[in-house]
Amino acid sequence: MTRHESVLELIGNTPIVNVSALSPKPNVKIWAKLEGRNPAGSVKDRVAISLVEEAEREGLLVPGRPGQTLIEPSSGNTGIALAMVCQLRGYHLKVVLPANVSPERRQLLEVWGAEIIDSPGSEGSNGAVRLCQKLAAENPDWVFLYQYANAANPLAHYRTTGPEILNDVPEITHFVAGLGTSGTLMGVGRYLKEHKPGTQIWAIEPPSGEMVDGLRNLDDGYVPPIFTDNHGSDMLDRKVIVRPQESIEWTRRMVELGLFVGISSGAIMCGAVRCAAQIPDDVEATIVTIACDDGWKYLSTGAWTDDIETVVERAKKIIYF
Amino acid sequence: MAVKVRIPTVLRSATGGRATMDVTATTVGEVLAAISSEYPNVQEQLFNTDGSLHRFLNVYINDDDVRYLGGVTAAVADGDEVTLLPAVAGGATA
Description:
The complex is a heterodimer of chains A (321) and B (94).
Chain A: E1 16-18, E2 28-34, H1 44-58, E3 69-73, H2 77-89, E4 92-98, H3 103-111, E5 115-119, H4 124-138, E6 143-144, H5 152-168, E7 174-178, H6 183-195, E8 200-205, H7 208-211, H8 225-229, H9 232-235, E9 238-241, H10 244-255, H11 263-277, E10 285-291, H12 308-315
Parallel strand pairs in A: 2-10, 3-4, 3-6, 4-5, 7-8, 7-10, 8-9
Antiparallel strand pairs in A: 1-2
Helix pairs in contact in A: 1-2, 1-5, 5-6, 10-11, 10-12
Chain B: E1 2-6, E2 20-24, H1 28-38, H2 40-46, E3 57-61, E4 64-65, E5 81-86
Parallel strand pairs in B: 1-5
Antiparallel strand pairs in B: 1-2, 3-4, 3-5
């Protein structure tokens, strides 16, 4: 189908491409699902439309009614996707954004008319969530969809990403994705565990806890409610950290296959390669991984062109996941 | 087994600012016990009163979360690096 009434119809049904040339083992195939093909440029388009439509079904939002405001914490992609959806629906969006995201992320929010509220960069997404909770409590007329706790987030992946993956790669044995809100992992994970029992679910995360200042003690930590609600510890089979150096290296390796993807996609690819490396030589396996977005939003980091040590130091100071 | 432990900023007030420790242990549980015995104030931060790990504490062996490797019973080998990190919201600074 090539004619569409709305750009929103272009969300999902993303292509999946064979990246086995980067697999360390001939018996392990790796496929990457290219979520950068979504209209606002990332996997978060699926979440944004799901959050908004669920809120409309519940009557929290009414399309066309003037004066409706949403507020949401985001390190970028959810905000960008929500901004696009809100513009089409006529809602005003305020995004609480850590100050240290890449300038392209900030600018894209402005492109779609979102209002940016800065939270301290040193507090990472924790700080954005905390400030957003405070502002939402002070302004009860604003709609706070709270992607970290809203069941419509994993549901988007349970209903769309999961079935698409199983349909395109029915031989899947491992699913490897990034852990942020945990929406992708919880939604796709549940779908695969139900429809292809035995599929291993691997979570990849940046070493966030090392860099977030402002925690007085461990009680200031944060686990996304949707992770707890979906019994995330039981859902996941492994959870591994990928550090900035490897993230950049694998973001560059993806280019060898013509894939210009964002830095978190490089991190997740690195995780997929580690997953492949521990599979015995006599076992055939197929890993599906997610490329969350394309590289455009990270050009200012010099990730592909500058000296790698310089880029890694720069990457430690920005939010790319 | 000689293991290097990395202590996060949030716990360093209880370790006199110390960021790394070398301990001898065969499991993650023994690693945590070794830290607690040297710095008793750390113990109440690491564990709940029932002895389980604090819900906002992540422990990694060579960047692999031990919750999925058998928890405190996970084995450590010579030269392994054990990292303690607070759980924080995703999408945070790398």
